[in-house]
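Q&A log
Question type: sequence-to-structure
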Amino acid sequence: MAGRSQFVSVGVRRRNARLTSLREAVRVDAAIVGIDLADDKQALVVTDHDARVLDRRMIRGNVWRAIAALPWAEQVAREAGFERIVLACEPTGSRWKPLLQHARDSGLELLCVNPMLVARGREGEDYTREREDYRDGAIIARLTSERRCFRPYQPEGAWARLRHLGIQRDQQLERATAARQGLRDLLTCYWPTALATAAHPMDSRTFRAIMCVSADPDHLTSLERDELAQQAKEALTAWGGRRLHHAILQRLHASASAPGGVRAERAAASERATLTARAWLDASSRQHDAETRMTSILEELDIARITRTLPGLSLVGAATILAETGDPSRFTHARAWVKIL
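Response status: OK
Response body:
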């Protein structure tokens, strides 16, 4: 209907505000320096807002060498009629963090582009997926000029510690899961009867403790049951257990006399299985240590008290979520925080 104002939702206003903020960062008087970060070489591409390449340079060395070359980029920008530069890159590993520190110290702006958009940008350039350093730098700059970018978030203090401990926990969890699956796979091959000694053998601390003592059925057969129980108790403590499940121990000790499975590789596979079980224990211990440190941070931030009032959410679960999202207070509204999840 003519003259009738269009309804603008809260989501639209927030999107407009974000675009306005990015427009202020990518000002028309600033040339864009797209940087393709790598381990031992960095591609710097200086462009205007039409994605025309003004100059480019390949820097041999790490990201700190690229930072040292930024005065060259500023000179190129001035010669092209720009007053300043804005830096743009992909948030690759931790390589972008020195750039962010330099930008903050120098009064520059650093914007990041989603690596998925860069990959799609390669296809849009010439319908191929081939990667080339200079071209990726130009694509990063073009996406930045189109404001398809974002200001990176860098946690500080306790939040930074929580983020790094969360990464440590994930790495150890991955190790533990791989070892768990590897142990089951090996036992299925050379000692299948062992898996029938408990309803859920991989969840049994007694079973895991005995595997850490030895996953060699010949070695277990050579031990008396009481001797095996004594050695298993030490490993059980490391697994966080208190009392051995003697029925499982008895069945496992008996199954060692008739392991079944493939005989040809039994000696070699049992050695590997023992090492795998111990690697599982090591990874689980490191994971538990990381989780303990993470929950202590929640206590420090006074978040643990609130978490305990939420049904179905443990302290470890809350710490894992917050390690990924960072400080919730940085979000302008709840829906933005939920999208990160």
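Response note: The chain has two domains: 16-145, 159-325.
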